[in-house]
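2024-03-11 09:14:02 INFO receiving multi-entity request
2024-03-11 09:14:02 INFO entity count = two
2024-03-11 09:14:03 INFO echoing inputs for audit
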Amino acid sequence: DGGITQSPKYLFRKEGQNVTLSCEQNLNHDAMYWYRQDPGQGLRLIYYSQIVNDFQKGDIAEGYSVSREKKESFPLTVTSAQKNPTAFYLCASSIGGLANTGELFFGEGSRLTVL
Amino acid sequence: GDSVTQMEGPVTLSEEAFLTINCTYTATGYPSLFWYVQYPGEGLQLLLKATKADDKGSNKGFEATYRKETTSFHLEKGSVQVSDSAVYFCALSTSSNTGKLIFGQGTTLQVKP
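2024-03-11 09:21:47 INFO inference complete, emitting structure
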């Protein structure tokens, strides 16, 4: 089945540590996204990538980094510079480009807790 | 800037009750509008969408009509079920070539038997 796989589902981190969240898709989508979800705040865009080897900052990119070396992979690193990293992180993909209908396909999310 | 505002939750209904979740938006140009649903512990799924004024999106008994004159996209269902309990997000897209969506804050629906 085609879809988006995020791992790990749950992650605990000590303060000062960097952690990387994995996102893999086999939908052959060009565009991929990382959103952060906090209670009562909806989803906020961290980074997005429309094509391999290119990505752009979203609304809350500070303290995060990404790479897009392969079409199917878009890992997110939460660095120690992120002041409040405890959240639910969602990865998504879309067809991208002129064929884009605006529909995003989401993974099941990764819950990061800083101890 | 572009934004989406949803009615605050949680919304608690009895089974078979009528549901309305209000959504209004602010956007330049002609956005596409979406409703996504998130079941507990899961990611979001597209519920329905509308791409131009007066379009009605529908799926699984849910409906929403794109009202340009009132900049609204309210979600409705005639008879809710316990299985509809979830968080519902209204969203808009104004840039078709980037695929970026702007989400509302989400509305939690709880349906009691």
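2024-03-11 09:21:48 INFO post-check: The first strand of chain A starts at residue 4 and ends at 7.
2024-03-11 09:21:48 INFO post-check: The radius of gyration of chain A is 13 Å.
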